[in-house]
Amino acid sequence: MTISAAFNSAMSGLTAASRASGLVSENIANALTPGYARRSLELSSNLVTGRGVQVVGVTRHSDPVLVANRRAADSAHGSASTLSDFHSNLENLVGRSGSVNSISTRLSTFENKLLTAASMPDSATRLDGASAAAKDLALSLNKASDGLQASRTRADKSINTQVNRLNDVLQTVQDLNARIQSVGTQQGNTATLLDQRQLLIDEINEIIPVNVINRENGKVALYSEGGAILVDGSAAQLSFTPVNATKPHMTVGNGLLSGLKINDIPVQTSGDNTAIRGGTLAAQFEIRDVLSTEAQQDLDAVAQDLIERFEAAGVDPTHIPGQPGLFTDAGAALGSPTASGLAGRLALNAAVDPSQGGQSWKLRAGLEATDPGAPGDATLLKAFDKALTDARAMSTDRFGTGALTAGEVSAGLLSRVAQNSNSAAQTLTFSAANKTEMERLELETGVDTDAELQSLMLVERAYAANARVIETVNGLMDTLLRL
Q: Which tens digits make up the pLDDT trace of 331-345?
């Protein structure tokens, strides 16, 4: 080997060692960086001269199976967390069993106040207490209904935010595809661009679970789990129109709420066949269009049961058919069919509400009574209590079959909400554990700092050896020049 050949080989070795040390330091520095994949240097012998080494490129190490499994866990956890938050909030709205602010406790308090007033029907204080308890019961259903609609409005706004973010990220993925193709064609290093694209795909996947399909020149196509094209050459455009506030009667079916379109084509947003199933976007649609609607129906059923119990014939002898009873639909008698959102409109009859100019003695004398009547007569107060404790059939079996008392209806509501909340919490716990495990497995294939430090020691030795060769060549050259 000539002196020049030895010098060129050593210089190529120094260049390769320098590049390798840079990669090792980059790996160690980014060991905890999300989306970063370990790099390694690809080397080969110099095919032009046949001597020395040349850098072929940089390899980015990423296991597609582990990444896919981790993404599936991410999207499942995002969906479970969103749904669990909704159920937990609903449980807080209706109250937990035994809570002083629960609908069931408010009903029990009202029953007790009626019995207390019946034991001393001439006491204005006790009658006022019964009226206040009835009003608190109505307000608890109002609050639950209003809170439910607030959750529904938040879901609608969240859908809009996620759709806007998706449009931005999908466009960025399209742009990164083009840049990766351009840089790769010029034999440039695309690892950093690939890291950026992986982070964006992870973000998309949490909103809508995706399948990643590799295309030519480093590009990828993205399809949702339900088969919708999100990116394939060009990015899809999603469209959605939010509302300022939702109301119980507003649905996608009657056109008062917006559905979702992909490239101006309407897509199903709920059920097993939706193109966006899984992830946080589908969860928000389920909250807005399914879970909130069902919960509102449950609240309305409780409110309807209360109104019907006191509008029933024979409960209040002074009651005029067609006129409101003790509980009203925003001051009116219960209509048929009942409009959605009854729980939010439930109100105590103003005739017995002192704060609205009414007289609490009408709880004793009758809602349509014109005079207080006999102050010691507790017949109507006992009839009102009996109306609550009598078992009657309901129009829905969601709280149980057969005839139910008012207490059993409210207890059934709380039990149903608590059961759904517990089930959602269990699903969240499982998905969180699965997500943690998938992240751990992916990290195991990531940057191992111990291994990188060992590699750095090998690089150091290679660098020193090549430097020694150059030093020797330099000595030889000096000797030749002295001859």
A: 999 987 888 999 999
